[in-house]
Amino acid sequence: MQGYFLVADILGFSDIIKDNNSNNQNPIIEKWVILVNKLTEEHGIKKFQLISDSLLVGIGSENEDLDNLVSFSRKLLEEGLNNKFPIRGAISYGEYEWGSLTYGKAVIEAFEFEKQQNWIGISINSLPVYKGQYNNLALYPVPKKSGFYGLYYAVIWEVPEFPSLLEKSNNLEKGKFFQHTQLDKLTNTILYRNYLKLISLENKPLTKFYGTHPLEKIETFIETLMPE
Fold first, then answer.
1. What is the full DSSP assignment across 125-143?
2. Does the pLDDT of residue 33 top 90, yes or no?
3. Which residue in 103, 148, 168, 227 has the fewest CB atoms around it within 10 Å?
4. In the chain, what are the domains?
C-alpha cells in the first residue's frame, strides 16, 4: 500500500537494558508499552508494532492521515520525555506492506533516516504534494551525525528548557557525565527549541526557514538586544 510510515526509537534504551537486571527492566518496558498503547488508541492508529524500543507505525496516504501521524508524533515526543524516554524518529512516504513481515521502500527510508539524525525529535524524510494544515510542522535543517544538512519538515513539539531536558534525558548519561556525542543530541534539540521560539516571536510562518543556520537567526536576535 501507499502511505506514511513512522519509525521511532528510545535513545539510550540499550544501556537501560544492559545496566539493569530483569526485575528493574520490566517496569520500564511496561511503561513504554502502556504509553504507546495509550497514544495509538487516542489517535485511532491501528497499524503499529513494537520491537524492543523501536515503534513502527503505518498509515494511509491522505492529508488527514499525515496530520494525525504528526499529532501522534508530537505527543510521543512530549509524553515520552516526561516518562524519561527521549525519542528520535523519522516519517517517510511510499510503498510498504504491513503484516507478519513488514517491508517496503518507505520502511527502509524511515529506518535509515531515523538513524542519521542527531537530536531528540521526529522529522519527515519525504513529503509529497501536501495540502494539510502544517500546524505541527516546521521547515528546519535537521541535524545529522554526518554528511550534508538538508531542509526537512520537523515535528513541532514543546521542548523543555535545558535543565529539564537534561534531567528527563538521563537515559543518555554515562554515570554523572555525558558522552560528547550524547551532549550533541541535547544541544541540537535546544537549538531547535530556541529557533522555534524566535520565529514565533516574530510571527513568521514556520513553513519557511530563515537564514543559513539556526545559529545565524539566534545571533542576529542577540545583537538586537546589545547596547550600541
1. S---S--S--TTEEEEE--
2. yes
3. 227
4. 2-225 (3.30.70.1230)
